[in-house]
Amino acid sequence: MSFLDTADAHSIAEQVRTARLSPGIVAEHFLAQTSARESAIQAFVALDPQVVRKQAQGLSSPGINGLLAGVPVGVKDIIDTRDHPTGFYSPIYDNNWPSRDAHVVALLRQAGAVIMGKTHTTEFAYMHTGPTRNPLDLNRTPGSSSAGSAAGMAAGFFPVALGTQTAGSLLKPAAYCGLYAFKPSYGLVSLEGIKPLAPSFDTLGWYGRSVRDLGLVAQVLIPGLPHVTRPSGPRTFGFCRTASWDQVDPLVADALLAAVDRLKAAGHSVTMVELPDEFAQVFDDHLLINDCEGARSLSKEWQSSPELLSPSVVAMIERAKGTTWEQESAAKARLAVQAHVLKAIFAPFDTMLSVTCGMVAPLGLETTGPSDFCKFWMAFGLPQINIPLPRQPGEMPVGLQVIGGFREDSALLDAAGQVDLALRG
Amino acid sequence: MSFLDTADAHSIAEQVRTARLSPGIVAEHFLAQTSARESAIQAFVALDPQVVRKQAQGLSSPGINGLLAGVPVGVKDIIDTRDHPTGFYSPIYDNNWPSRDAHVVALLRQAGAVIMGKTHTTEFAYMHTGPTRNPLDLNRTPGSSSAGSAAGMAAGFFPVALGTQTAGSLLKPAAYCGLYAFKPSYGLVSLEGIKPLAPSFDTLGWYGRSVRDLGLVAQVLIPGLPHVTRPSGPRTFGFCRTASWDQVDPLVADALLAAVDRLKAAGHSVTMVELPDEFAQVFDDHLLINDCEGARSLSKEWQSSPELLSPSVVAMIERAKGTTWEQESAAKARLAVQAHVLKAIFAPFDTMLSVTCGMVAPLGLETTGPSDFCKFWMAFGLPQINIPLPRQPGEMPVGLQVIGGFREDSALLDAAGQVDLALRG
What we know:
homodimer; alpha/beta; Amidase signature (AS) enzymes; eleven-stranded mixed beta sheet; 15 helices; 11 strands; 13% strand; globular
């Protein structure tokens, strides 16, 4: 067992900044991990060890002194990179080499990160899945759409990875693979150089090995985000089941309720929160808007190469064609009103808790299960974190979701640290 | 005087589709216009006649039968194009050649358009101006930031052009150069491959030679936008002065009020609308959010090459550093609440009218005047159209602004047609 098998990015960068570890040694460790297991996992769609080594060897000031000095990062393949092709898992974009990095990739490099390669996504971050397997059980999906980033994290290929989320694309794989994940508030992270799907929801997020790593990457990718550290002590949590609670597997529900008991035992207050009935409509409204915006975002591909689109994308576009402009406007207007109602419901609580997924990672690679518990909060642009519940060897992971108020990302990161401490302390 | 000097895109494409005009002839006409006047106007940052000819000659099905068959289009240089460099008017991006077209450029090509070249923008579509002059008076600014697209339209270099708007970047140049312009509702047009400035506001829009051309391009760039044609007849307009009305030059105010009289004479109803006092805050809130989001959008350039940024961008970033997270959150929350109030104020009217700019194009090229009357509606994502008031030879143009409800772009286009008819009919 080596330090780098479990060290978080915070620790790795500190070792690199103080010259106790070289970026080259760090890179070789993670390359060795990929050599051992990548053929079984298939996290990468593009991985070139020479490109990784060149970055590590070329690291100079200010990167070598940066917050992510020498930290390898996996990048979902709907995010442009200048030294790797960017294919969106679509044959339409075979051999597409962007002229410049996406904004977030440039910020990572400026902070000293080493881009490990491009990780498998579903086609255009929608539903058509790739070959990636869940490292915790090769017969199960790692979740989608940020499949390669999540599987690569769980396999130890990199300690940080970028994903994106429109419904549950970042948090669902985190729940299935047992990862810490952070999806910031809508609009905080630049999407320049990232393929849009449904721009009302699309948000970049990331995986890390600890809650503090989620905050560390936030410092790099959200310039100006304030740092909030409240003293440890009792917090006031709400637990919100949403109208989809009947989807939750009893074993998952038991694990979550046990986690709630541990939070209470640690001195926190947890109150069950019921939502007004009209919030049951949120799931359908998210789907409808996702369809209509997805159809517009992929209209050029639909017009130029419909035969190269998967059945799931074609079905999305067909559903959009069957939706009127007024239906889409009404769905957006409902969400705008409900956002104010939800804000009032949040007010008495420091942070909201929920389940991330109602089931553990399902068997098979072609479907990845519902995303209702993620997309409910996505519909309002709220920041979300997945905390993997502690588990016994051999058990598949279950995720606890922690949700913050809009733009209260710092308070959410702080609260998630308290939750994690209570569960593991 | 040739047909192509004044023909709108609708007429040109019809001639091309029916083989009465070849795309090559059309391209040569507009290239000849640029030969005659481009050295005085400087609308283009990149113009290659061979690239234009190659597109025109290569036009085949389906483009040759498309809605924009053979129509030359100017493209603002913050929009990626695969056959021209894209420089954002920043030395940081000298010789940047994107690997693929922005989504909107791809849609234009699919509809048969010919990309004429890249038009001058201010640096990153913010405030630092380029060399472009107003074709109606070379001593005056064409407005910013879509300077080259607007000036090229007024000079007859192309019959359609793309611009973008975050505050007044599309409509202000339209007012100064006497153009029809359409800024759709926020979120309807894909921004893939367009450099972000303030993502809460950034919207692509376009210039055309007629109101019907504004609608024609909308059909191409907003797939699924319904077509609304109400029978001609009396409309119920509101006229909203906003809290910035004291900025309006008396001659501009007189011209607008004369236009209102013509609308009334044509049988329409025009009611003066007063806004509650708290709406005076909108201008400052827009500025504050623009600063904070602009600073995040340009954070990679600020970190890598601060010495290559203009004083205006640096000042924006410095203002953002002096703004707290809570101030930005509060500004966004105010706008979200006010959007609902404004919706109720709009309800009794078919469409709202206002001034586009409080002055005609000012003398000089370095500053371009305030954008308050544009950015007020931008803050709420509402669709906006500029209609140039009829004018005498030698007079500088004045713009009437027509504003629609959110996502009611089709109704706005229809109403703008009625306004234009009343003013010119």
